[in-house]
Amino acid sequence: MEQKSEYQFAAIIPARYASTRFPGKPLAMIGNKFMVQRVYEQALGSVDLVYIATDDPRIFDAAIKFGGNVVMTSPDHPSGTDRCAEAVEKIMLETGTEIDVVINVQGDEPFIRPEQIDLLKSCFTGKNVILATLVRKVTPGEDIFNPNQPKVILDTEGNAIYFSRTAIPFIRDYDTHEWTSKHAYYKHLGMYAYRTDTLKKITKLERSPLEKAESLEQNRWIENGLKIRCAVTMWESFGIDTPDDLDKAIRLLDHFI
Asked: Taking a C-beta distance cutoff of 8 angstroms, is the pair 68, 33 a contact?
């Protein structure tokens, strides 16, 4: 059988209207555009096929209005990964397009760079890579103790060994303020890419003990023997979780290139 020379990549942007801290977040305005529109347009710089996956007609209508591809999904999904899995099945069925790799682009990161998506895509030049995500190397002196910023330790091939909300690894015999100068620390940035068959598989796995302990779904995949390749990016992510974050994003807009 002839082997394909290129993979078909699709970026899917999960976008929920309901949010405890920031209801309607995807439709928040940053300058003259919806937040989700800015994410969509950034993703277009790296892949040809981009879809918003939503559970709300207001987001669906907004996407149609600005000319975006959009698909309706169930309101009952526990995570963006599950929403992506439903979306890619619908997209392939409705369009007849075969999608090899799905890139899950966070819908609340309007400053995501196409170069970061390209970096994730490059992980799949190796046939053995089935999952990939972005991490950033911590600079000496940087805070590694914020539990809202998960950390990850890597093996010699760049695969994740474990994700944690605590600082890992623990550096024995040194004060905590010295740790980042004694060992490489990595923060997880949260954008994922999955082979389509792998995406289908991981959404059927039951929640695992380490996933429950850390409230990090990627630990479920590791506990089930799946390798996650980590691509190191120089750029930090900027997620918008609250109206205060939105105010910061609006101020940053003029400086974003």
From this structure: no
Q: Whole-angstrom Cα distance, residue 10 to residue 30?
A: 25
Per residue in 141-193, pLDDT (tens digit) is 999 999 999 999 999 999 999 999 999 999 999 999 999 999 999 999 989 99
pLDDT tens, position by position, 198-234: 999 999 999 999 999 999 999 999 999 999 999 999 9
Residue 182 CA, distance from chain mean position: 29
Read off the amino acid at residue 46: S
Please report, for residues 82, 193, 229, 234, the alpha-carbon distance to residue 132 in angstroms, rounded to integers and kept in the order given.
16, 5, 4, 16
The domain locations on the chain are 9-250
Does residue 59 sit in helix, strand or coil?
helix
What is the C-alpha to C-alpha distance for residues 234 and 6, in angstroms, rounded to an integer? Answer: 26
Mean pLDDT (the chain, rounded): 93
In the CATH scheme, what architecture does the domain 9-250 have?
A: Alpha-Beta Complex (3.90)
Q: What is the DSSP string of 148-185?
A: TS-EEEE-TTSBEEEEESS-SS--TTS-GGGHHHHS--
